[in-house]
């Protein structure tokens, strides 16, 4: 029996992994098995207990600490994840582990995989996000990984530039586009009614900590909230932040503000189907989440991207970048709502694939594991550099 593990720690990550799991599971047989491992914020009431949104068979639950007030907290969380996942991999003897992206707990899981000689199949490597710790974590996991499933051609080239052999780097696009096509199937009225709102003009928002900056989170959120107050005729549907350092503080500020601002509606989690369905009909998407960069343009909806968290990602013409101060955010929102910019958005073609990524990723993983020829003694792939 050859087994692989798929690890998910957050709502956003599961949304991207879900279509891959759905295509992997039909390959299960007496000789091949797929274990879904749930950890992180999925198991936390504070972050919405999003394990309830997982509609696949769950094989293991690994609770870890989620304190995020300081760098020491994050390191302690990583240490706990490293120990627990090392134990899991030693007992499970997996033929491979599927990891996505760039979160700090995934770095600990990747180290655990390396220490137990468990091959890593990595999704979403090669992207750049200069304003977040995710940047170096993502590239670190790339160097630990055996198979690479990138979301765009620029990222494929970067992974090869990091010394990974082109034969193990596959640009099948982003599984988020699969979700855009197949999952966002609620009507506007259905999606709004599901969160107790009547039909209205609204924006969908997410604001995460900018983990490579030392600026005041309170100041950033106050500027963000002041911009929201400038548009009383628009309802702002905000999903809470993740468990990065500073995320809990952002969520506290949002909860406090919701009591005072009539057109602000804060939710711990909306679930993938409802979140993407709301995105489909939004006037614009606001904040600094990768979903504004990757999924939103596929709906031809404007994105107002605040600050540097996503700086460096491949972007479409439907994205407006702005600074973190209120005036910049307000000006960007006005541009996003203009007739001229809506026309620009209507012509956008997503650079993140055709919506068939998950099927191709699952098939390649099954093929490689079934062949049984993985050699973790990777040779560095040198390219000629003009310096």
Number of domains: 2
So, CATH architecture of the largest domain? Answer: 3-Layer(aba) Sandwich
- Strands in their spatial order, largest beta sheet: 3-2-1-4-5-6-7
Q: Mean pLDDT, nearest integer? A: 95
> What global shape is seen?
globular
Question: What are the SSEs and their pairings?
Answer:
Blueprint: E1 2-8, H1 11-24, E2 32-39, E3 60-62, H2 71-92, E4 96-100, H3 104-115, E5 120-123, H4 134-144, E6 147-150, H5 153-161, E7 169-171, H6 175-182, H7 188-193, E8 202-206, H8 217-229, E9 235-239, H9 247-258, E10 264-267, H10 272-281, E11 284-287, H11 291-294, E12 303-306, E13 319-322, H12 326-336, H13 339-345, H14 357-371
Describe the structure in brief.
By secondary structure, the protein is α/β, with parallel strands linked by helices. It is built from 14 helices and 13 strands.
Task: Please give a handful of descriptors for the protein shown.
14 helices, single chain, 387 residues, globular, UDP-GlcNAc_Epase, UDP_GlcNAc_Epimerase_2_dom, alpha/beta, 6-stranded parallel β-sheet, 13 strands, 2 domains, 16% strand, Rossmann fold
What does this structure look like?
- By secondary structure, the chain is α/β, with parallel strands linked by helices.
- The chain has two domains: 2-174 and 353-371, Glycogen Phosphorylase B (Rossmann fold); 182-345, Rossmann fold (3-Layer(aba) Sandwich), CATH 3.40.50.2000.
- Helix content is 40%, strand content 16%.
- The protein contains 14 helices and 13 strands.
- A seven-stranded parallel beta sheet has the order 3-2-1-4-5-6-7, sandwiched between helices.
- Helix 1 (11-24) packs across helix 14 (357-371) and helix 8 (217-229) crosses helix 12.
- It is globular.
- The model has no long low-confidence stretch (mean pLDDT 95).
